[in-house]
Design goal:
Largest sheet of chain A: 7 strands, mixed
Distance between the termini of chain A: 40 Å
Order of helices and strands of chain A: EEEEEEEEEEE
Oligomer: heterodimer
Largest interface: A-B, 26 and 28 residues
Shape of chain B: globular
Amino acid sequence: QVQLVESGGGAVQPGRSLRLSCAASGFTFSTTGMHWVRQAPGKGLEWVGLISYDATYKFYSDSVKGRFIISRDNSNNTLYLQMNSLRSDDTAVYYCAKVDSGDGGFFFDYWGQGIHVTVSS
Amino acid sequence: QSVLTQPPSVSAAPGQKVTISCSGSSSNIGNNFVSWYQQLPGTAPKLIIYDYGQRPSGIPDRFSGSKSGTSATLGISGLQTGDEADYYCGAWDSSLSVWVFGGGTKVTVL
């Protein structure tokens, strides 16, 4: 069965860096696009960014562009989110999500359990 | 302010039906497929509708989806207490080259 397991979260001071990992299993990771989505405490879902199956394409939300970098290691079935210059408003639960596609669009058919990131001095 | 607009909350009695609207524009809902996600308290989101009205395996047919122009609608019939959750619509925005979510709708079973 499909499993997505995030790790690497925790508490960090403003301005510092943190790298999240998402270990994938149960599907062919190397042919699957992946996304990161986050949710601030008590707030809705916010898309962070995506990476294509071969890392050719990467897109980011304006709120993280230039600070966050998404990468992947297809040989180890792992997705990464490098978060730099962290700010207090980056405090959230971060989810990795697997992409699937139907007749024309794509959607997130599986999500990880989420990992907490707290940015505070 | 979310690119896709949803009502903050809807409610109905058990057994009744609720509908949740998701309003967007031609750059997202109007020309791209919409999906819907259910988030039960304290859990990760779960896909319940994709390609406007398709249900993944295991999702009961009480859940339905439709689209008209630049708006999409999620329907939940035969409401159950287990349906109490936050529901989010989402779509790709071709103009912004980003994925956009609605602000979320809290469903309450009275």
